Amino acid sequence: MRTRGKTGYAMPKKILDLHVSDAPSPLPSSYRAALKDPNWHAAMLDEFNALIRNDTWSLVPCPAGVNVVTGKWIFRHKLHPDGTLARYKARWVVRGFTQQPGVDYGETFSPVVKPATIRVVLSIATANAWPIRQMDAKNTFLHGDLAETVYCEQPAGFADASFPTHVCRLHKSLYGLKQAPRTWFLRFTRFLHSLGFVSSKCDTSLFILRRGTSLAYLLVYVDDIILTASTTALLQSLVTLSSEFSMSDLGDIHHFLGINVHRSTTGLFLSQEQYALEILDRANMLNCRPISTPVDTCSKLSGTDGVPYSDPTHYRRLSGALQYLTLTRPDISYAVQQLCLVMHAPLDSHYQLLKRVLRYIWGTTHYGLQLYRSSHDLLAYSDVDWAGCPDTRRSTSGFCVFLGANMVSWSSKRQHTVSRCSAEAEYRAVANCVAESCWLRQLLSELHRPPRRATLVYYDNVSAVYLSTNPVQHQRTKHVEIDLHFVRDRVALGDVKVLHVPTTSQFADVFTKGLPSSVFRDFRSSLNVLPG
């Protein structure tokens, strides 16, 4: 008889492993599966107890003929900036699509802070060495008071055993309600006004407080808050916002809206490296071959000439994700704008362009936007690519605006109408740049940091510079008369001065066309897009 011992074959011993695995519990497929997992069960219990403490609803018998909004549990891993697990998050979310307009919701609009406003406030705080804190509001939408009568079902798995058929008559808003963001913002705005804050007219999500010679700025993006003040004492007194709302003081700003913020002696460095890696992982391009520029120098791609891409949903997801990456990566703004123009019907050639952009990002994931300690004077560059679209012959205009040495606003956009001559396209681009500059001037005035001199707008077209200061009217310029008068009025008021700049120093070229590698690298560094 041949046994295992004689042949030298041994079965592995199964020894009880008492070590706890570091791997997080996977996302549950249903609320029943979540209830069986102790980590997710604890997260669901925390959410339910928060709803009860907040007096979110009252259990009532279901009235006849009313609309009962349904809901579901949403599960998510909350991660640290380095990608490690922070906590398990369970959220009871109602299905807003089951609401009926005019019955259980009315107005739904709620503003969020503009990216340019964030960069302006951070630039001012950096220039003056102000402390910058970030805060997070817990269960944000639960603080909003509902004006409408809304009924919803009890949370699955936590129905009251004594009244299992009752429904919840909501007193406070819930996540998923169409009016939830609006009710939270209105409630938070009323509270800030009671503290003495004033809402900005340029950006209603910016709040300004002035006490004597001290200043404080507060930015709101749903439940994420940035707070900075000219004195530490004023900042500490305002951190007590948590007495009214359940808030977490996250300390000095370090991670806001998915943006890593690193503070040094030279200023602030804004980076989205982790987010860029997530996009590359989603596209299965983490090990691709990097490339030096996001687009080539050839003409723009046609939206109709080519083979349709086989998976347009995949294309749209990646293009939409790249849009958010432009918050700190203006160097890819033009490429992303070209990708988003054809999201309705992408072609294979457009997907090849998308892959090229991802290859460029893979080689520059550690790049970000640098904000220096500098002055508060505005400087702008504007440019246009006339009739560059091969399908519509519309022009692409772009601009960038600097606050001191910091770039705070930029744009790459196709013009709405066809321009009959290059001068028309050039002047429309100048008008857009001047409009943005005037908005920033008004914003700085509200922040009690008004510009000390006129905004310098640099352009590389002599005709546009000449038309901005000379009252010439003839057949060539009659069809852009509104833009002419707008720019001339601002020049006459002393708010703006349009000057000529050589093409070799026209940094706005990055936002209108593909550039050679050497020129692109020089302009990229001039825009303060630097390695971290």
Automatic annotation (TrEMBL):
InterPro entries per the UniProt record, alphabetical: DNA/RNA_pol_sf, RVT_2
Superkingdom of the organism of origin: Eukaryota
Domain Reverse transcriptase Ty1/copia-type, residue spans: 54-295
SUPFAM superfamilies, A to Z: DNA/RNA polymerases
The protein's name: Reverse transcriptase Ty1/copia-type domain-containing protein
The species this protein was found in: Triticum urartu (Red wild einkorn)
